[in-house]
Amino acid sequence: MRSYLAHITRFAAFGIAVAGLAAETPDLTPPVVPPAIQVPPGNNAFVLGHATGTQGYICLPTTTGSYAWSKTGSVSGPSNNSRPDAILLSGYNREIITHFLSPNPQETSPNPSENGQPRPTWQAVRDNSTVWGNKIGSIDAGSDPSCPNTGSISCLLLQEVGAQAGPTGGTRLSVTTYIQRLNTSGGSAPPSPQSGCAECCAVSTDVGNQLLVPYTADYWFYKAAQQ
Fold first, then answer.
1. How far apart (Å, rounded) are the C-alpha atoms in residues 73 and 81?
2. 227 residues of the chain, pLDDT tens digit each
3. Does an H or E element contain 164, and which?
């Protein structure tokens, strides 16, 4: 009787573990998107994360002599280097990924003080495996059902430009080949110039002001079909 109960206990524990793994990927059928942000054939969606966080901006002078909110922190910096800070939840409301900007050690930065080219970064909560992305396509919010909210940050297609296994060898996200940012809401900087606000971006004394704009989005992660 005791061995039977032990067997049942082990089986139940195994079932709970399997259910936990399945809970992160309940239904991975990506929406149809325009060609500009389509993932190339030979890649399958394997993780979907629902993001809540902020997009960061800094007030900088422009090349035309005015002032504007910048996502890059540099007047001439790469336009695809956004400054996100977000957590991604599974369909079962579990935190599965963190999203931020960090140096990609597999790319050389133009700034010798940085340990790699700054890129949008995603790190798995489960095993700390990491992927860095580079924007290769975008569509305006409100231009397609996959990106329906006019005035929000654009929807994107990013390609993996760096990946790293976790400290114990985990590869949850390091197998990623492409990432889509879809269904965005919010996140856009206010238009410049501004006036009458606590943190404006209109005159020289505003340079350096920072702004965090809340946003939500769906992030779809893809890997090679054979993996």
1. 9
2. 444 444 444 434 334 333 333 345 556 899 999 999 999 999 999 999 999 999 999 888 988 888 888 876 554 444 334 589 999 999 899 999 999 999 999 998 777 767 889 899 999 999 999 999 999 999 999 999 999 999 999 999 999 999 999 999 999 999 999 999 999 999 998 876 666 676 788 889 888 888 899 999 999 999 999 86
3. strand 155-164
Residues in the chain: 227
Number of domains making up the chain: 1
Assigned token pair, 189: 């900087």
Buried b (16+ CB within 10 A) or exposed e, 109-120: eeeeeeebbbbb
Question: What is the dihedral sign for C-alpha 33, 180, 216, 213?
Answer: negative
Q: Which tokens is 184 given?
A: 């965005």
- Residue-number span of the structural domain to which 208 is assigned: 2-224
